[in-house]
Queue: 2 jobs
Job 1
Amino acid sequence: MNGRSSRAGAFWEKLPDLVKALAALVGAIAALAGVVVPLWQAGVFDGGNGKEPAKLDPSLISATATSTLESDPEAQLHYFARNTLDNNRKTAWNSDGSAEGESVIYEFERSVRIARIRVVNGYAKSDEAFKWNARIREVEIITDDGAAPREFVDSDQLQTIEVDSGKTSRLEIRIESVYPGTRYRDTALTEIEFWISP
Ligand SMILES: [Ca+2]
C-alpha cells in the first residue's frame, strides 16, 4: 500500500469510534431533552403554575381614595384615583395634604389572585412635578387575605412590587410614610398595573 491508501485505511478504522462518539452525543442530547421537557411541562421554567401572570384589564377595576386633592377645572387638572389606571403618565392621583394614614383602594369585578403590582410612583408628568410633590414610600398592602408591608422606590420609572395575595376582591394601599416633596405635602401616584395569577 502507498502512504495515501494507508491514511485512508486509518480513517476507515477510526470511523466506528466517530460513529460511537456521535451516537453518544445524540443520546446525551435526547436524555437532556427527556429531562428538560417534563420540567417545562411541570411549569418549573414559567413560575411553577403552568402560566405566567397576566395584566388585569383596567376596565374591571374601580379606584377610590380616602383623600383626594380638589380638581382645578380651569386648568383642567383632576387628581382622582382613577387617574392611576388610565395608562397616562401626565395624570395622577394626588392626596389633599399629607397622605400618611390615607389609602388608595382598588376593587375588582371578580375575585383575583394578585401576583404583583407595577407602579409609577409620584407625579411623573414632569421632573418638576415629581420633585415638588411627595412620593409613596412605606405602605401596607391590604387584601381580603390580610396585610403585608412593602416599600416603594423613589423613582418615576415603572417598578414591580411582589404581592402574592390569595383570592381577593380588593387591594388597598395604605400609605405609612412618604418621600417628601420640595414644594407640596400632596402625595402622588401616576400609574398602577395589577398582574394576576391564573
Ligand atoms: Ca395616569
Job 2
Amino acid sequence: MTLRDRITRLHPPGVPLLFITVGLVTAALTAAPIALLLAERRAAGPGQFAEHGLLVALFLVERRAAPEAARPDLADLEEIVPPEPVCAAPDQAEIERLTALDSGVSARNWTHIIVHHSGTESGDAASFDRYHREVRGWSAVGYHFVIGNGTRTGDGAVEPTVRWTAQRIGAHCPASSMNHRAVGICFVGDFEQSSGPSPSQLAAGKKLVRQIARGFDIPPENILGHGEVPGAQTACPGTYFPLDVLREAAAAER
Ligand SMILES: [Zn+2]
C-alpha cells in the first residue's frame, strides 16, 4: 500500500492534495534561505557562513515579530519633506560658455526664440533626446536648450543640445516654419497644471534669453510661447508660464 493510498483511506478525498500543496509551499519557504546560505558559502569563506546564517535568522525573526512596524502610516509620510532643490542657475560667464558653438560651426540667422515646457514632472536633455529619437523617430532631441527643474539636473541648470552647438534646425515648432528660424528652449515641468517654472529656472531662462536675443538681435516681440505662434495648436508652455518676464529681460539689455 502506498502512502497516498493510506492518506486517502484516513481522510476524505481532496484533503491529501491540500496536505501535499501546503507541504510543498512550506518546504520551498524553508529551502530558499538555506539555498541562499549555501550559495553564499560557496562565494565567501566558511568564516562568514555563520555570520550570514545569523543575519538570515535575525531577518526571519524580525519579519515575524513586527510585520507592520516597517510600514509608515500617513502621519509619518506627512512629516517627510523633500529637500530644497539646489539652485543651479548659471552666472553670466557660465551662460557665455554654455551658448558657445562647436569650433568651426557658423551661427544660423535665428530671428525668434520659442519657449516650451516639457509637460512632464521631470526630465533633462538626455531623457528628451532618447524620447525624441526612439518614440518620435527624430535624429536628436528637438530643442536647442533644456532648463532643468532639479529632478534629473539641477534646478535652473542650462543644457545646450547638439542642435545648438552644431547649429542645426530645431524640431520643436513646425508652425510658421519656426523650426528653421527659432531657437527652441524647453523648461522642464508642466506649467498648465498649477504653477510656473521655479525661481531658479526663470533666473536661468532670463539670462539665456537675454544672451541669445543680444547675440542675434532678436526683438522682445519675437520671443514667443509655443502656443503664441500662428498656426500652433498647443497650450505649451502652459497658462502659468510668465512669458512677459522673459520678454522684459530681453528688452532691458537692448
Ligand atoms: Zn512646445
